[in-house]
Amino acid sequence: MNLNDQALDGDLIIEDAPAEAAPATLTARSLPQMMRRIPVTLTLEVGSARISLQELMSIGPASVLPLDSLAGEPLVIKVNGAPIGRAEVVVAGEQYGLKVIDLDGLNLDLLAS
Predict the structure, then answer these.
(1) CA 65 – CA 56 distance, rounded (Å)
(2) Which of 19, 20, 35 is nearest to 108 (CA)?
């Protein structure tokens, strides 16, 4: 597939990685049919900042808050709030996309057990 091929009713754009880079995890095809349509929320976390309530009250339109991550660092991929890997932001046509770097926390084998 390439970035123009779409899956899951047009919601997800997938670019295949080379076969040697593919992780040895359970594929979507081997998930039980009833589990394939369970919705999950996928988010990318740029970073976070811990501030006081007083600092929060003084934030305005021109405020800049430093985050705990460095510029250019991979972003954290989270599924339903749980970290599963890291990614880079890419441009896919007129939209932003993500290029997966690793999926350390994604273990679909546990779902099939």
Answers:
(1) 10
(2) 35
Residue range 73-98, pLDDT digits in tens = 999 999 988 899 999 999 988 999 98
Residue 79, number of CB atoms within 10 A of its CB: 14
Max CA pair span of the chain: 52
* 98, 14 Cβ separation under 8 angstroms: no
In whole angstroms, give the CA distance from residue 35 to residue 91.
30
Phi/psi at 30 (nearest 5 deg)? Answer: -95, 0
Domains and CATH numbers, the chain: 37-47+68-113 (2.30.330.10)
